[in-house]
Amino acid sequence: MTETARARLVLLVSVAGAMIVALDGTVLSVAQPSLQRDFGAGVAQVQWTSTSYLLAVAALLVVAGRLGDRYGHPLMLRLGLLGFAAASAGIALAPGIGWVIGLRAAQGVFGALLQPATLALLRSAYPEERLGRAVALRTSAIGVAAAAGPVLGGALVGPLGWRAVFVINVPVALASAAVTLAVRAPAPPRDGSQRLDLPGAALLTTALAALVHTLVGVPEHGWTAPPTLLGLTAVAALATAFAAHERRTSQPIVPRAVARSVPVTASMTLLLVTTAGMFGALFVTTFFLQNVLGYGPLDCGLRVLPLTALMVLGAPVAGAALRRHGPRRTATAGSLLVVLGVAGLSRLDADSPWTVAGAAFAVLGAGFAAVMVTATGTVVGDAPPGYAGVVGGLKQTAMNVGPAFGIAVAAGMMLTGPQAGGGAAPRMGPALLVLAGVTALGLLPAALLPRGGAKPGKDGNSGKDGSPGEAVPRAGTPVEEDVR
What we know:
Elements: H1 3-39, H2 43-71, H3 73-92, H4 97-125, H5 128-160, H6 164-167, H7 169-180, H8 198-221, H9 226-248, H10 256-259, H11 262-292, H12 297-345, H13 354-382, H14 388-414, H15 428-440, H16 443-446
Helix pairs in contact: 1-2, 1-4, 1-5, 1-7, 2-3, 2-4, 2-8, 2-14, 3-4, 3-7, 4-14, 5-12, 5-13, 8-9, 8-14, 11-12, 11-13, 11-14, 11-15, 12-13, 12-15, 13-14, 14-15
């Protein structure tokens, strides 16, 4: 198999794995009402069909990436896809809501195994000058899957019932797993450098699970309620213990080369605050469109469609901007667009024409595409040799924790206090402005990304602005050269 064919095969597998996960999340939201009626389940039980998955996947992504670095990413991707298919089949046959919740947690475990591998394999298959295009295509595919999920869910749930949305995962995941048999990647080192530190893994997993569980509970309890304060205290204690353990151990879960990489840590921070702002804004505007204006789910989805369309169409444009202008300028422009989009949504009221919301969502989608492509390309391309899996796991963790944090911030302002419930609508403008402020924090890590862009006729050389470890990449590369 030629290198070009191998790279295309890896891209196909990477896109398929990412789309399976994206589709599963968006389709479920359409299937939950039918599931609730079928089992006679309570609202809290139905919510746990989402929460159990989120807890498992967010807690295990970094550890799963580390396992991929040790045992090989094709193996982790294959196991993840096969397990995801098996869990989906189990959910489709589940006799009760408890089984669905438990199997959704299992699905999250296998989802955690496959996600870092899809990113790490891209790093091994594509040279730096072509990596940005591959990441842009993957981002567009995720946008297509997110947009298609509700439509596909509605088409399946109506005539076939909620179980159909899980049945469809099975052949797609099995086919993707079969394709991975042809994927070849560099063998992981066998010198003991990738030994998994079990105490560190346990501390990190527990801390992330506690964090996500606490954030998910904020809409119900508020930020100052005892369950939230107790959860945040536990997270702080676990994080402190994990940091102390990482300093002492010779094989930390987050390798020191990763923790000290300014582009990698800046990219993950950027993703965290940007996803917080965007998903928090989607939570607020969905509440406004459905609970205040009385739109149904389909009408609401149509009004959000400009966001998805600009995300899909904007990803290739962002890839081109990344090659021409470099990560710093592209990420800064994307962050500013997201801030403007969220701030624009804060001006919505019952009398606003649909074009106002459409324009704000379009700006938001274009900015998010630029941030996603830039941060993902930098994280994947700048991963120190041998640690692409753990870096991919950290990136996906930021993508899972960020939305939970953004929704918690939004819900804490809208759904608690004396104006909760029907009087929450006047609080939506301030909530969106706060989320715009959270998103604006992303300008700080964006300023720490490498500045280099395409410089025809010149190879990379040392940066002149004093940014840590920066180099001017070869034409077309989205990341630094010095990690090579």
